[in-house]
Amino acid sequence: DTGVSQDPRHKITKRGQNVTFRCDPISEHNRLYWYRQTLGQGPEFLTYFQNEAQLEKSRLLSDRFSAERPKGSFSTLEIQRTEQGDSAMYLCASSLQGQGSYEQYFGPGTRLTVT
Amino acid sequence: RKEVEQDPGPFNVPEGATVAFNCTYSNSASQSFFWYRQDCRKEPKLLMSVYSSGNEDGRFTAQLNRASQYISLLIRDSKLSDSATYLCVVFSGGYNKLIFGAGTRLAVHP
């Protein structure tokens, strides 16, 4: 399967714990995005990388959230001191920038439940 | 005001019906437009891009009206498998991100 993959698919954690999610984009894609989706809403942008550089972060991304893409391939999203309000689906998407196309392809998501 | 607005539905239609979804966006500088489909508890999947000249893909037709900042999706001959949430999506180059509407739910019944 050459699509976007995410791990884990589900995570249940207690409030105050740290969690880390991983995303592997489509191999030739140079842009990687993180979104968050809650029930009844569309995905909301969190941050994106072009290669290994993090170029933009949403105001939604509090200082408890950090994302990395150390070698310009896979990315990790860490949430420290989780809160119940962090419960959501965390989606990763990738795209190939530079060919006039802005289409993004999503992974299956990581569903986080904070108890 | 939300940047991308859609009627949440649900639209309940019989098989074979034609159904249309509308969407408006607020940023006149938006560059690209898409419809994504999302099944329950799954990731969004690209359904089609939307071009100013309008475009068609089988039973699906998308239209863009830049002057009115309005996007539409028409589904002809609805199938049970079309039941899903349809997300109107705008790419804003100034922000380098996709901006999603909240989605319109479609339920096709026998």
How would you describe what is shown here?
The complex is a heterodimer of chains A (115) and B (110). Chain A has strands at 5-7, 10-13, 19-24, 31-37, 44-50, 53-57, 65-68, 75-79, 88-95, 105-106, 110-114. Chain A is mainly β and 115 residues long. With 110 residues, chain B is an all-beta fold. In chain B, strands 2, 4, 5, 9, 10 and 11 form a six-stranded mixed β-sheet that branches. Chain B has a five-stranded antiparallel β-sheet with strand order 1-3-8-7-6, with no helix packed on it. Chain B has strands at 4-6, 11-14, 19-25, 32-38, 45-50, 55-57, 60-65, 70-75, 84-92, 97-100, 104-109. The A-B interface holds A 33, 35, 40-45, 48, 55-56, 91, 93, 102-109, 111 and B 4, 8, 31-32, 34, 41-46, 49, 87, 89, 91, 93, 95-103.
TL;DR?
Chain A is mainly β and 115 residues long. Chain A has strands spanning 5-7, 10-13, 19-24, 31-37, 44-50, 53-57, 65-68, 75-79, 88-95, 105-106, 110-114. The N and C termini of chain A lie far apart (33 Å).
Topology summary:
The complex is a heterodimer of chains A (115) and B (110).
Chain A: E1 5-7, E2 10-13, E3 19-24, E4 31-37, E5 44-50, E6 53-57, E7 65-68, E8 75-79, E9 88-95, E10 105-106, E11 110-114
Parallel strand pairs in A: 2-11
Antiparallel strand pairs in A: 1-3, 3-8, 4-5, 4-9, 5-6, 7-8, 9-10, 9-11
Chain B: E1 4-6, E2 11-14, E3 19-25, E4 32-38, E5 45-50, E6 55-57, E7 60-65, E8 70-75, E9 84-92, E10 97-100, E11 104-109
The N- and C-terminal alpha carbons of chain A lie at a distance of 33 Å
SSE succession of chain B: EEEEEEEEEEE
Order of helices and strands of chain A: EEEEEEEEEEE
Total DSSP helices of chain A: 0
Overall 3D shape of chain B: globular
Question: Using only CA atoms, what is the Rg of chain A?
Answer: 13 Å
Largest sheet of chain A: 7 strands, mixed
Share of residues in strands of chain B: over 45%
Beta percentage of chain A is: over 45%
Parts with pLDDT < 50 across at least 5 consecutive residues of chain A? none
Kindly report how far apart the N and C termini of chain B lie. 37 Å
Structural class of chain A: mainly beta
> Using DSSP, what is the number of strands of chain A?
11
Count of alpha and pi helical runs of chain B: 0
How confident overall, as mean pLDDT of chain A? 92
Number of strand elements of chain B: 11
Largest sheet geometry of chain B: 6 strands, mixed
Helix content of chain A: under 10%
Stretches of chain B where pLDDT falls below 50 for ≥5 residues? none
Fraction in helix of chain B = under 10%
Q: Note the overall shape of chain A.
A: globular
